[in-house]
Amino acid sequence: MTTTPEGVSLGMPQLPAPDYPDDVRARLERDAAEVVARYPDSRSALLPLLHLVQAEEGHVTRTGMQFCADVLGLTTAEVTAVATFYTMYRRKPSGDYQVGVCTNTLCAVMGGDAIFESLQEHLGVGNGETTDDGKVTLEHIECNAACDFAPVVMVNWEFFDNQTVASARQLVDDLRAGAQVEPTRGAPLCTFKETARILAGFPDERDGAVEASGSAGPASLIGLRLAKGEATARVVHPRDGGPHDEPQDSVHEPSPTEHLSSHDAPQDTSASDPAHPAGPVAEEGE
Ligand code: FES
């Protein structure tokens, strides 16, 4: 890191960085040319190129950022700004397996906070830290749009749904022991470097990996099913003596004053407040 003469870190990487060995640079340049060719504007390839250099060293180094800048004709400041903005780019050496525990609201209350706390104690590491054997880096992560499977743990961005403290402990033990670990859905697990190369846009050539399909859960997909006419909605009437939760034979067509969102459903207190009567709203359902 860049430091002042007094030794105070300024938080910026020291550039220029040492270059890759010739053979590594030549290989990365061939890969980078393939990635850049996919975009009408070369600078649009910065995100996949950062994954590419991350696949090489396991994190985005000064050398990797300098490489991206050279290939794309950007300044190192521009590359640094992007690499430090996105949390998927790691800035220091980390483990083969990035274990992310979702501690956003739903997962947190469903057990995510307890899992994260337990794994910190079990592994002897804090947030963003790596076990001594270099296998597991633990971090808490934001919502991964799998809330209907809360609490969710992700390993190298593969889903491990409906976790418990016990199952999460077993998961990290298996990862450290080199045991076969299967995500709940999606492609088989691979190392962080291998994952980074796939994210750079190179094909996943493992047998069955592409065919392995993961899917969102029923609660996540209800909006899509409503849009396709595959599910029905039910109307929730105001609590003024009218009919309640009346099932509809077909998909409910909302009027301009209605919204197909359960977030707009009448709250327990709204009907008792004459100054704020609840209007007719609809609620998703089958
Ligand atoms: S809150 Fe954890 S996946 Fe959404």
Global outline:
globular
Bound molecule kinds, no repeats: FE2/S2 (inorganic) cluster
Per the CATH scheme, the topology name of the domain at 97-187 is Glutaredoxin
CATH architecture annotation of the domain at 97-187: 3-Layer(aba) Sandwich
Which CATH top level class of the domain at 97-187 fits?
Alpha Beta
Could you give the count of β-strands?
A: 8
Work out the helix count: 8
Distance between the termini: 56 Å
Q: Strand-and-helix sequence, N→C?
A: HHHHEHEEEEHHHEEE
Low-confidence stretches: 245-273, 276-286
Strand order of the largest sheet: 2-3-1-4-5
Structural class: alpha+beta
Mean pLDDT: 82
Query: How big a fraction of the residues is strand?
Result: 5-15%
- In helices, the fraction of residues equals 25-40%
Largest sheet, in brief, is: 5 strands, mixed
| Radius of gyration (Å) | 25 Å
| Fourth-tier CATH superfamily name of the domain at 97-187 | Glutaredoxin
Task: Describe, in plain words, how this protein is organized in 3D.
This protein is of the alpha+beta class. Among the domains are: 22-83, Orthogonal Bundle (Arc Repressor Mutant, subunit A), CATH 1.10.10; 97-187, Glutaredoxin, CATH 3.40.30.10. The protein is 34% helix and 10% strand. The protein has 8 helices and 8 strands, in the order ααααβαββββαααβββ. It has helices spanning 22-36, 46-57, 62-72, 76-83, 105-123, 165-177, 192-199, 218-227, and strands at residues 97-102, 129-130, 136-141, 153-155, 158-160, 233-236, 246-247, 281-284. It has a 5-stranded mixed sheet with strand order 2-3-1-4-5. The protein has a 3-stranded antiparallel sheet with strand order 7-6-8. Helix 3 packs across helix 4 (76-83). Mean pLDDT is 82; it is low at 245-273 and 276-286. It binds FE2/S2 (inorganic) cluster. FE2/S2 (inorganic) cluster (FES) is lined by residues 102, 104, 106-107, 143-144, 146-147, 150, 152.
